[in-house]
């Protein structure tokens, strides 16, 4: 992979950044059904940094595969910032990777309501900093996307990759590592 071009798709830039830093990634997906992992693995050489993907569509799958606790799911629902963060952290920790990224949301056409409308998506990112640095983190972002089911799913993948790339760049800049 040559140097990053600003016009490169985010999955290419993510791959270049991870490979350059010697870091790894796992995904945790609900509404996207594996599309984030698919986009990552569309890039030749992804095996250098992509470990695995968890597709956890149901509550029980989120609990069993990612360790999202029952209380968080019960209190906030699967489509929430706390669950997106726990999904990302669960993928990172269960796969023992540097990074975890997650997406959970309501793709439609049904399933939404006034508080959680169709198109509501939360993206989570989790980073495992070196032990003892106390710089590990999880974060999430909320999006409200327009369009049909496919557009919401595709937009969720784009947002997840963009958030992941922004986080990798932030960590790189903070550590003085060139992007």
Walkthrough of the structure:
42% of the residues lie in helices and 19% in strands. It has helices at 10-21, 35-41, 59-66, 70-76, 81-95, 149-175; strands spanning 25-29, 50-55, 99-105, 120-127, 137-144. The protein is built from six helices and five strands; from the N terminus they run αβαβαααβββα. It is globular and about 45 Å long. The protein has a single domain (10-174), classed as Maf protein. With 179 residues, the chain is α/β, with parallel strands linked by helices. The longest helix has 27 residues, at 149-175. α1 (10-21) runs parallel beside α6. It has a five-stranded mixed sheet, with helices on both faces.
Question: What is the level 1 CATH name?
Answer: Alpha Beta
Number of domains: 1
Give the uncertain stretches in residue-range form: none
Q: Which outline best applies?
A: globular
CATH homologous superfamily identity: CinA-like
Q: What attributes characterize this protein structure?
A:
Maf protein, 5 strands, 42% helix, five-stranded mixed β-sheet, 179 residues, alpha/beta
Helix and strand topology:
Blueprint: H1 10-21, E1 25-29, H2 35-41, E2 50-55, H3 59-66, H4 70-76, H5 81-95, E3 99-105, E4 120-127, E5 137-144, H6 149-175
Parallel strand pairs: 1-2, 1-3
Antiparallel strand pairs: 3-4, 4-5
Give the gist of this structure:
The protein has 179 residues and is α/β, with parallel strands linked by helices.
């Amino acid at each position: 992979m040559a140097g990053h071009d600003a016009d490169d798709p985010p999955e290419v830039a993510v791959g270049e950044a991870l490979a350059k830093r010697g870091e790894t990634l796992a995904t945790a997906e609900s509404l996207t059904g594996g599309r984030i992992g698919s986009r990552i693995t569309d890039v030749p050489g992804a095996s250098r940094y992509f470990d695995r993907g968890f597709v956890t569509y149901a509550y029980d799958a989120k609990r069993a595969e990612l360790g999202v606790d029952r209380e968080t799911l019960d209190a906030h629902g699967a489509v929430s910032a706390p669950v997106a963060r726990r999904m990302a952290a669960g993928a990172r920790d269960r796969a023992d990777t540097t990074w975890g990224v997650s997406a959970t949301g309501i793709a439609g056409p049904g399933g939404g309501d006034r508080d959680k409308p169709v198109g509501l998506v939360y993206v989570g990112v989790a980073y495992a900093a070196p032990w003892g640095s106390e710089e590990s983190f999880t974060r999430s972002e909320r999006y409200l996307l327009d369009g049909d089911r496919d557009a919401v799913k595709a937009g969720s993948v784009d947002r997840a990759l963009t958030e992941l790339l922004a986080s990798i760049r932030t960590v790189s800049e903070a550590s003085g590592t060139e992007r």
